[in-house]
Design brief:
There is one protein chain. The chain has 256 residues and is α+β, with helices and mostly antiparallel strands. It has one domain (42-249): Alpha-Beta Plaits (2-Layer Sandwich), CATH 3.30.70.100. 36% of the residues lie in helices and 30% in strands. It is built from eight helices and eight strands, in the order H-H-E-H-E-E-H-H-E-E-H-E-E-H-H-E. It has an eight-stranded antiparallel barrel with strand order 1-3-2-8-5-7-6-4. Helix 3 (56-71) runs antiparallel to helix 5 (118-128). Mean pLDDT is 87; it is low at 1-29. Keywords: Autophagy, Mitochondrion, Transit peptide. InterPro entries: Dimeric_a/b-barrel, NIPSNAP, NipSnap_domain. Residues 157-254 form the NIPSNAP domain.
């Protein structure tokens, strides 16, 4: 009797576990291929620099003097999409967004050329003395979002960053492919991205508004559109953490 019960227990345990283990359908393509724009091969880099408070003005001045001279040269397959200071959120922070036309080969080409650029080497050294910390991520853009193109100002920008639960990126993309149509009426949607290297399962939505009151009005208006509340209801459980930065563009930013 004891032998029978001990032999059958593993089978019982296995059967019970099968009731609670979530079955995942095997995928035959990477998330990035399913979610990203296929007609382009652009790679984006998001840089976030925490600047020593007493150096923020000097940091901005240095970036505005040096970055355009380096990255506007034609032999660098790289373009500055936008550069900002955080207004509300973490203070004394600079945010830069770059586009590399041609993906990872373009990124490697730019990095190799910048290592040999004496002016950029000096710039990085001087800039480093002004920083408390820095981090970056490599991103792809969602296929259903707007292309981030230069726009006239004045505008404020909101960078909404979402840390998703691992394994939920496809669900997020499916819901937001429908949700984005609710947020196009006022041309506020600038760009949507998801991380490839750095902190993973990160999503960034970039929005532009005339001012904070306009932001409030536009966001409130979305709740009066049938279907928006349902999409929010289903996407919220996918999120582990979220952060909102309100940002002001620097003079050299193509997004004004």
């Amino acid at each position: 009797r004891g032998l029978v019960s001990s032999a059958s227990r593993p089978r019982e345990d296995s059967w019970l576990k099968s009731l609670f283990v979530r079955k995942v359908d095997p995928r035959k393509d990477a998330h990035s291929n399913l979610l990203a724009k296929r007609e382009t091969s652009s790679l984006y880099k998001l840089q976030i620099h925490n600047v020593k408070p007493e150096y923020l003005d000097a940091y901005n001045k240095l970036c505005q003097e040096v970055l355009p001279k380096i990255h506007e040269e034609k032999h660098y397959p790289c373009a500055l999409v936008g550069t900002w200071n955080t207004w509300y959120g973490e203070q004394d922070q600079a945010v830069h967004l770059w586009r590399y036309e041609g993906g990872y080969p373009a990124l490697n080409e730019v990095m190799n050329k910048l290592r040999q650029n004496k002016e950029f080497t000096e710039f990085r050294k001087e800039r480093g003395n002004m920083l408390l910390s820095r981090k970056n991520q490599l991103l792809l853009e969602f296929s259903f979002w707007n292309e981030p193109i230069p726009r006239e100002g004045p505008n404020i920008y909101e960078l909404r960053s979402y840390q998703l639960r691992p394994g939920t990126m496809i669900e997020w993309g499916n819901y937001w492919a429908r949700a984005i149509r609710f947020r196009q009426d006022n041309n506020e949607a600038v760009g949507g991205f998801f991380s490839q290297i750095g902190q993973l399962y990160m999503v960034h939505h970039l929005w532009a508004y005339k001012d904070l009151q306009t932001r409030e009005d536009i966001r409130n208006a979305a709740w009066h559109k049938p279907g928006w509340d349902e999409l929010v209801y289903y996407t919220v459980p996918l999120i582990q953490e979220m952060e909102s930065r309100i940002m002001i563009p620097l003079k050299i930013s193509p997004l004004q």
